Amino acid sequence: MRRIGLLEKTGEKIAYYRKKNGFSRQYLADNICDESTLYRIEKGQQLPRLDILKEICMKLNIPIEYILSDNDEAELISYVQKFKRLCRESLYQLDFITLQYHYEEAKNFSNNNPLLNNRQFLRFLSWIEAVLYHKRDQNPEKAEILLRKLIQNGKIINEIDINITNSLGLLLLEQNKLKEALRLFISSYKALENSPYIEDKSLFPRVAYNLACLYYENHRDSECFDICYRLEYYLQSNHLFYCAGEVRYLLGILHKRKNDLDIAQQYFDEAVNIFSFERKYAFCSQSLHSLAEIHYLKGDSRNGELHVNKALSIADSINDQEISNAIKEEIKHTIKQYASRL
DNA sequence: AATTAGACAGCTTGCAGAAC
DNA sequence: GTTCTGCAAGCTGTCTAATT
């Protein structure tokens, strides 16, 4: 009896999502299975093989859980996915007010839906709570206590473990606890390498970039290069823009350190273009500053001057006066330094 | 008792073709 | 063009008898 129900439900759901996407059976079945097979699956005459079901779901752009779970669960899965996506967007924009709104709404929702009280979702909520303590309340101590509580036995296995560990690493980095931060980023990076499926495509760039920065600080250049090149490849192959400018900038300063001035110049150039497109004025000004230094080092003082002036003018666009002034001071220091050499 | 091999049933699949 | 059906092939799990 149970099998009959499963056959019908599976078929009905596939047919529903196929029609919702405006696909014909022929189109959906193409390169996956025979049209007649799909027909019989939809009509509840047979169950699809797992590999076929997986490909059907991919083409329909739905998680396989939508088909395998019952209707109530499917709605909840959809809600959780939407919530996670919105949180990621708010985090990317550093919009902690919106993040708090999503967090509170999800908390209320989970209180009213016992099905949502599963461990993974509650851990995700607690992670967001810790981020809010840290970034919104400027209370790193409280955030650290919660994050440490969320890392059980130091085990980093799934996506949420990696997010928690990465956040704790960043927090420790701010407190200058570099050794422990490095250990956490390395563990997160290794866990990511061993995770076959990660939903959040920005997780790898976030963790890898943090680790690369620490390697740079510790003068572990070859490891830093390795991660940066991997990151570049990952961003390109996943059509991602996330931290693309930062990676170019890091590669620029790495090559500058190696005295490969021409390659460094190329990376700084790319970083400037990406930051100016993203309107990240502080980063853009810093990249122009670095570019100017390269020109000075190559003996091209005319271009050096041109770029420091550009860097100064972009620094004026930075909203945070403190940051703006600090960057301008650094630029002026460079101007003095190279002017005295002429 | 545990393992292996063969027979068998049930199921999914793709192909071909009919019906609408 | 889309939907539906019949059929043969192939895969998998279960049962049973033989063997170790």
TrEMBL record:
Pfam families: HTH_3 (PF01381). One of its GO terms (molecular function) is DNA binding. InterPro entries: Cro/C1-type_HTH, HTH-type_regulator_Rgg, Lambda_DNA-bd_dom_sf, TPR-like_helical_dom_sf, TPR_rpt. It comes from the Bacteria. It comes from Cytobacillus kochii. Residues 14-67 form the HTH cro/C1-type domain. Gene3D superfamilies: Tetratricopeptide repeat domain. This is HTH cro/C1-type domain-containing protein. Coiled coil: none annotated.
